[in-house]
Design goal:
The protein has 157 residues and is α/β, with parallel strands linked by helices. The protein has 5 helices and 10 strands, in the order H-E-H-E-E-E-H-E-H-E-E-E-H-E-E.
Length: 157
């Protein structure tokens, strides 16, 4: 599968400058960071969450772990979040390899919450819908396009 068409078309239509980084197959964000020679602090991974029946995308650095309690507070949810099972959300992303979803929940009608630490770097890189490609763009462009909630939702791995 190639770069997620929905994301590529969106970036192109918005006139956003981005770089596609091709790498050997990698199935974790840390591995993608390593084979792409990009810091694990600047490579974002998507963790799909469910709160009741609603999905959310938690976006965090490859080098960090998600704090579910902090996420619940940041999302102002009375329901404690849980990790979504791949089988629960695979049909939402028909243009992506399973496990390589890009953090553009706005294109899939899913709220996005990003760890505060990612906003401190001028660039962000993330899976481009495949296990072989990443997209790297300016943080400010990503934030402008996605309008994520930004909060401290992680801890050191």
């Amino acid at each position: 599968m190639a770069v997620a068409k929905r994301v590529k078309d969106y970036l192109d239509n918005q006139g956003i400058k981005y770089e596609i980084v091709t790498h050997t197959p990698a199935f974790t964000a840390q591995d993608a960071a390593a084979v792409s020679h990009i810091s694990g602090h600047a490579v974002a991974k998507v963790v799909m969450i469910k709160m009741g029946e609603q999905f959310a995308m938690a976006v965090l650095p490859a080098s960090r772990r998600l704090d579910m309690d902090a996420l619940q507070i940041a999302m102002r949810s009375p329901i404690h979040p849980r990790l979504a099972q791949e089988r629960e959300f695979e049909k939402i992303f028909p243009d992506c390899d399973l496990g390589a979803e890009p953090p553009f929940g706005n294109l899939y009608n899913i709220p996005v919450i990003v760890d505060l630490s990612l906003s401190e770097d001028p660039q962000i890189a993330f899976n481009a819908g495949t296990h072989r490609e990443m997209i790297q763009i300016a943080w400010k462009d990503f934030a402008q396009l996605v309008h994520p909630t930004v909060a401290p939702i992680t801890f050191e791995a």
